[in-house]
Each structure stands twice: as C-alpha cells, then as structure tokens.
Amino acid sequence: MNDLLLKYGCNPNQKPSKIFMKDGSDLPIEVLNGNPGYINFLDAFNSWQLVCELKAATGLPAAASFKHVSPAGAAVATELSDTLKKIYFVDDLELSPIACAYAKARGADRMSSYGDWVALSDTCDASVATLLKREVSDGIIAPDYTEEALEILKSKRGGRYNVVKIDPNYKPAAVEHKDVFGVTFQQGRNELLINEAMLMRNIVTENKEFTEEAKRDLLIALITLKYTQSNSVCYAKDGQAIGVGAGQQSRIHCTRLAGNKADIWYLRQHPKVLNLPFVDDIRRPDRDNTIDVYISDDYEDVLAEGTWQQFFKTKPEPLSREEKKEWLKTLKGVSLGSDAFFPFGDNIERAKRSGVEFIAQPGGSIRDDNVIDTCNKYNMVMCFTGIRLFHH
Q: Could you say which of 60, 180, 223, 271 is the most buried, measured as most Cβ atoms within 10 Å of its Cβ?
C-alpha cells in the first residue's frame, strides 16, 4: 500500500487527508479493521515507538494507552496485586503478560484513557482483546494478532473498531520532516537510547542507592516522557506510569498535575474506595467518574444534593480530607522523571508529597544546588542524565 486516504485531518474541515511514504515505498502498516483517522495514526506511531523502547529497555512486554498524542499510561508486564486487579476492574479475567501490561497502562488513569488508542509491543492475544471488548477505545496497533483476538476486536463498536498491524522490522529514516504553515522543518530523529547506564553515571545526591525497582521505573518514566508532549513530568511505580503531566508551560504545573494523578491512583486503593457499594448495573464510565468525585474534596457537597442513589446501593461514608492525607503518607518508593531540568526546589517538595524517592532529570539549571539540597533534605536519590527529552 503506497498511501492511505483518511476521513479528514485533525478536524472535519481539514480535507483532503492521507498518510503515505515520501519515497513511494509501501506503508509499514496494514489496517485489518475499521477506518483510522489522522489523530489515530499520530497516536499509533508515537505509542508504537514507546512500547518498543520499553520492551528493549526492560526485556518485558509493554503496553501504552494514548490520548491526543500523549500517553495516559504506559506499563510493562509485571504481576498485578489483588488490589490493583480490583481497581483496574480485571479481577474477573485471566490475564496474559501482555494483557497485564495493558491493564496497568489503562488502569493508572482510567479517566484519561477513556476512548484511548492502544499500543502493544507483542502479539495481541484473546486476553487483551477480551479486556478491550468491554472498554471504550478507538483502536489498537500491534505487530500481530491471534485469530481469536482479531475476531473479538472486529466485533467491537459494531464492527468499526480500528485494528492496525505494523511491521516490527520497519526502521524509519534517520532524518524526519514536518510541514507547519507551509514551511518544512527537518531534524534528526530522536534515537537516543535510554538505559540503565544513563541513570548511574551522574548521581548527584548524598544518597546514591537506586533500587532495582527504581531503575526499572525510572526507565519507564523517561521513555514515557520521550513520547509525551512537553513540558512533561512522569511518576512511575510498580512497573507503570502512575501520573503523567503533559503539555504544561510551567514545570511546577507538570509536577503538580502528574502528582495529583499519582495521588488519585493511590487513593483508589483506599479500603473505603475498594468497598464502595455500587449499584449492580452501573456503567463502567459512570463508575470511574463516580470514584473520581468520591475521592475529590467536593464529594460531601454531592452527597448533600442527594444524587448518590444513582450510583450506590447505600449511602457511602465520605473519605475525609484527613483520611486522604494519612493514606497518602503511606505512598512510598515512587520514581519521577522530567523531560527538562527542574528550575526550583518546589518541584521536589511537591514530588515528596506523592511518595517520590528516586528522580532522573537532565540537570543544568542555575539552581541545581537548590534542587540537590532539597533532595538531600528528604534522603532522595537523584541523577542528572544530561539529556533533554522535549517532544512536539
């Protein structure tokens, strides 16, 4: 296939639209079902690169959940605890390793993953397809599909679910181009290799001991940032991104946004949340929205309005601010990556509130000493990678 016509570009008024190879060669993808659009393919190609790099760096199957050209979540296949299975709503499924990776990628931020694009580093099997069948999703890219998985996916969305197969051996040109306002930009592809050596060569804090889990999670955070719209910050724990702050003009706003998402991820594991008495027929998106409201500081006001009967069998006891504060104090061992340097120690102060103990960032700020001192105050481990990871 030399080119592929699309319905339209970013918006319905932007026509014509297609994807093609400038050298006239065949596209490295095959559409097995559906009719993917312009933004779908932007998500597909960015997410595919992310999961390939995650697998190369960790040796584990990897998955990503993308929305609007940034990851809502990314993860590698590590074992899920019973609690995580419950908050990701997969405790009724038998999960293969690649399905575990996707359950984690989607589950970390289920609100943002609503209507996502999925990327898998490995063959999509029936386990992933069964999980996807009951979620709201736009499409998937993978190197291959089992016959059973393909049959399940083709039945999704009335037969219109987008399924893309990509050649895993495809290698893009070393120089890439992009047209903006009729002007062509050219740059070398960002082929930077992110690996453990990058973490170990310049540890700048008094504490210099990265755990093995922290090394893995920092690789996940940095590789996720490589494909996240900048400015960006990523919190990671247990083999997955748990909070991504993307596209903010201020780094502290990235850190706050990602930290708030990490907090919500952990608050969803609170016993009160795990035992919420949902009505039997609640829809999955309504359940996710209700959990977010329950965790928020506005929930007691919502309860007062008498709307709880729509979602719960019995009126749940609110999760107080003090209970949330005490629960978040038990969040530990979180890793944090940043796509550019932290200009002030306030980023470290905010990260500390979400259990961050390990940090990887480029360094190079005139206030590096202040940032290092703040890390030392909390016995954190921080390395300077010397590498910026802006993505636009």
A: 223
